[in-house]
Amino acid sequence: MFNLILFGPPGTGKGTQAVKIAEKYGWVHVSTGDILRSEVSQGTPLGLKVKAVMEAGQLVSDELLIEIMESVFGKNMGAKGFVLDGFPRTLKQAEELDDMLKKFGEKISSVLSLKVDEEELVKRLLKRAQDQGRKDDTEEVIKNRLLQYHQHTKPLIDYYEKKKLFQEVIGVGGIEDIFNTLCSVINDKL
Ligand code: B4P
Fold first, then answer.
1. How confident is the prediction for the chain on average, in pLDDT?
2. 122: burial class by Cβ within 10 Å (0-12, 13-18, 19+)?
3. Atom of ligand 1 nearest to the CA of 57
4. Residues near 62 by Cβ (< 8 Å), separated by ≥ 6?
5. CA of 99 to the centre of ligand 1 (A)
6. What is the pLDDT of residues 61-99, one digit of tens each?
7. Does ligand 1 come within 6 angstroms of the Cβ of 36?
8. In what order do the strands lie in the sheet with 166-170?
9. pLDDT in tens, 103-146
10. 8 Å CB contact between 97 and 163
């Protein structure tokens, strides 16, 4: 199995590229943001619990995310690979992810981080607000999401660098060009 983490702050294009990678390689795309948004839109007990947290741009609790991911892995362990998009976002999630994969005799294969400067990130998310009206794409909430990234998620760079799994890829330019660069990095690791 190839277990890829697509890493980066909100708006770097993780979701956009993860869909394309999963399709090309036949891997399972896991977007924790999509999973949570679907729970919110269906009004499930989990959705009701996380709605306000997400709309404020805060991180949902590690316990809930770990529960969700255990269920995702449990259901898909026969897959050829996974593209994780938006998970892990905290050190606790990263450690638990390692433990979860270990139970299945698996480990993370690579962490690819999309590099985009903050001005461009805000521009993209505000554009998405116009196109799709996502509640967490307002200027104030975007600021909070970036703050959460710097406080809780950025420290994972060090965690994965120590494991020699971390690699940066330029995330600015055409979606196809970025996809081709990601594929050539992945192909070298297959
Ligand atoms: P996510 O859905 O993961 O939100 P995101 O980080 O903004 O990534 P997204 O995939 O949407 O954006 P992308 O970069 O693809 O999370 C939402 C919320 O869920 C979090 O704030 C949190 O509350 C909760 N959550 C999720 N996972 C969690 C976890 N593990 N722990 C705790 N809480 C969690 O794209 C952004 C925009 O840029 C798009 O409009 C796209 O079209 C555009 N774009 C992409 N590539 C481009 C390019 N090359 N050029 C120009 N525009 C581009």
1. 97
2. middle
3. 21
4. 90, 92, 93, 96
5. 25
6. 999 999 999 999 999 988 999 999 999 999 999 999 999
7. yes
8. 28-31, 81-85, 2-7, 110-115, 166-170
9. 989 999 999 999 999 999 999 999 999 999 999 999 999 999 99
10. no
Q: Distance, CA 188 to ligand 1 centroid (Å)?
A: 26
Which domains, ranges and CATH numbers included, belong to the chain?
A: 2-189 (3.40.50.300)
**What is the CB neighbour count within 10 angstroms for residue 26?**
9
Of 7, 16, 135, the residue with max ligand 1 atoms within 8 A of its CB, to mutate for a pocket test, comes to 16
The catalytic residue among 49, 51, 92, 128 is: 128
CA triple 172-175-177, angle to 5 deg:
80
- pLDDT at position 92 is 98
Report how far Cα 184 is from the mean position of its chain's Cα atoms. 20
Output the residue whose Cα is nearest ligand 1's atom 16.
33
User: Tokens 């891997």 belong to which residue?
Assistant: 27
Whether 185 contacts 114, CB under 8 Å:
no
